[in-house]
């Protein structure tokens, strides 16, 4: 059965979780099935974003023998909205409050890591902070779309951590060193194809301690507007990401920390932190 047909079945109508994983060999794709803690992977024959992606019939329990990977590697980029939560904008006084024109910036696809991959603190920064964010995965080429038409370009959603060298961000007008370093964009654990983005809790924890606690309803600009604004500037390609900003509570990361980003309806993205 093809993925498209499976999505139309009663068991999966309207929503599907797509994972990218490995058991030690080449990466594969799967549909995630089952409740939290009891998930199984329904293995697919290809990447369902680009091919029909037939169900192979193989099922694998999500266990220590399976390593979840970043659910997508963007074709080219992640477009990120800065200061899209008023409370977060106010907690960074050096940059001022949120404005009518949002800050847009890029992260390269080389910044991407997946669940359980280490966030490596860059040697040139002494203040690296977490930023829990909802990421939108683009499903097809998208340019100059309106907010009213944006939904048809969405493949799904995933958790993201816009890791930021805050001291560099304060010191430099260009955010390349602050935002674009390797391992600065963990995403995962999978892609959820359907999500109520108007009202989803979003939080982060460091070593089990709550650091951020917000809701997507507090975004200044919603998902559809974010896609429209990004596509006005640049062509979005299948697999590209649009990050929608972070709530207040951004907190410094230290060597040995364990970071969790959790979004209601999506799951939890966990990464260790190291300094080499």
Top keywords for this entry?
mainly beta, 2 domains, 276 residues, 11% helix, 5 helices, Fumarylacetoacetate hydrolase, domain 2, 5-stranded mixed β-sheet
| H and E string | HEEEEEEHEEEEEEEHHEEEHEEE
Distance between the termini: 46 Å
Name the shape in a single word.
globular
- How would you characterize the largest beta sheet? 12 strands, mixed
> Unreliable stretches, pLDDT < 50, 5 or more residues?
none
CATH superfamily of the largest domain: Fumarylacetoacetase-like, C-terminal domain
Q: Write down the overall mean pLDDT.
A: 91
What is the highest CATH level, the class of the largest domain? Alpha Beta
CATH architecture of the largest domain: Alpha-Beta Complex
Please indicate the percent range of residues in DSSP E strands (runs of 2 or more): 35-45%
Gyration radius over CA: 18 Å
List the domain count as a whole number: 2
Count helical runs. Answer: 5
| β-strand number | 19
Given the helix and strand composition, which structural class is it? mainly beta
CATH topology of the largest domain: Fumarylacetoacetate hydrolase, domain 2
> Helical amount among residues, as a percent range?
10-25%
Would you kindly provide a written description of the structure presented here, covering whatever features stand out?
This protein has 276 residues and is mostly beta strands. It has 2 domains: 3-68, no CATH class; 77-274, Fumarylacetoacetase-like, C-terminal domain (Fumarylacetoacetate hydrolase, domain 2), CATH 3.90.850.10. The chain is built from 5 helices and 19 strands. Strands 1, 2, 3, 4, 5, 6, 7, 8, 11, 12, 14 and 17 form a 12-stranded mixed β-sheet that branches. A 5-stranded mixed β-sheet has the order 9-19-18-15-16, with no helix packed on it. Strands 10-13 form a two-stranded antiparallel sheet. It is globular and about 55 Å long. The mean pLDDT is 91.
